[in-house]
Structure formats: structure tokens, C-alpha cells
Amino acid sequence: MMLRRPTIGLAAAFCLVAGAIIAQPARAQTAPATPPLSNAKTSMGEIFFMQRHPTTHQMEWFGSMIIWSLITLSAASVGLMGARLWENRSEMILPQPLLGRAQSLLKDGRVSEFLDFLRLDRSDFASLLTLGLSRRGQPIETVQAAMEDASDAMVARRMRRLEPLNIIGNVAPMIGLFGTVYGMILVFRAIVAAGGTPDPTNLAAGIGTKLVGTFWGLIVAIPALSAYAFLRNRVEGSSAEALVQAKRLLDEASPAPSEGTPR
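-> C-alpha cells emitted (263 positions)
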């Protein structure tokens, strides 16, 4: 009994010391769990607008400038999309009221009055029809060829004004990827500086922050390329329809033999 009591006491003391040693790492692992969550909450509003160094958490100016340039490019792209949508609306290519007025006036044979009316309109359809009506004395094949050349020139001019959207849509992801690659270089340098054993939480946060560059690049590119494809199809389709309607009206309003010479 005299030997058992010291043994029990030593065993109890060993268990207490072992429990304290085991509990200490557990507290070290669980105690910092709250601060990273609070840091994540405070940095969530900043993560999409700036980059920070993976170890010092200071603002990384070069990476942040890439993000801000993409945000500026996004605002410019939205403004450009609005301007091009306004320029390529149906009233500027093939206005339906003008088409109806053309059919009624040309059916009544009021060509000269209709030409004066067309000169006040700035649409592509009005320009094509004015060109065709002004050359009514020439062979119809020559007039139609001139109208086709004029239509191609109008489409090319409109497509050139749409090209910046295509450029922005293709360049923005590259800028974002450049920012991400630059940020990942900083992350891997931090891993080397930490001896190959960095804090996983800081490492994950650093990688997530660096991916924001690619995020902003896609935010800029997707609407720009979508708007470019939509406007390109609208310009090509509406211009082709305007040319077809202008040719049809020209055929109806070109009684070349009846004006001057009998049939």
C-alpha cells in the first residue's frame, strides 16, 4: 500500500502534465481560429479591390493597380457598349416608319418628293435608297452594284467602331491573368522565405487574393465579347435587310422606259 500510493500519485501527476502538454497545442490551434475569421470578414470588402503581400499583409501597389485598371476598363466598356447600342439601333439602319413612307410615296410615283424626304434621314437605308434613286437612268445592274458597295462600306464602318469591344474582351483576361501570375510569384517567394512550411491559412488567403485579377478580367471580358457578338449580328442582319428592301423599292420605282421613252 505504501508503494501504491506514490505510484498512484506519480501516475496522476504524469497524467496532469501530459494533459497539460497535449492541451497546450490544442489551445494554440483553436485559439487563433477566431482572429482569422475576423480578418477574413474585414478583408472581404477589400479583397476585390486590392492585393496584399502574403506575409506582411501590406498593400501590394503593383497588383492593386492591375485590379484598378481592370475596374476602370470595365466602366469604359460599359460606356462603350451603351454608345454602340445607341448608334446601331434599328432607327439608324432600317427605320420601319421610313420604310412604310417609302412604299406609299413610291407607289404614288412621287419620287422627287420622296428624295427630298430621304435627304433629311440619316439611316443607312435612306442613304442606299437615295443612291439608287439618284441613278435611276443607269442600268439596274450597275445601280445595284453601287448600292452593294455602299452597303459594304457602311457595314465596315460600323464594324470598325465595334472593334474596341472585341479588343477589350480579348485583352482583359490577359491583364487579369498577368495580375494573378504576379501575385502567385509573391506567394511562392513567401513560401521560400518561410523555409517551405508557410502558414496554410495565410497561404490560402494569399492565393485567393491573387485570383481576383483573373476574376476582374473575366468580369470585363464576358460582357464586352457578348455585346460585340450581339451588335455584330445586329449590324450584319439589319444592313442586309436594308439593302434588300432598298433594292426592292428601287425595282418598283424605276420605270426607266416610261420616263422619256415609250415601252
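Residues 62-252 form one domain.
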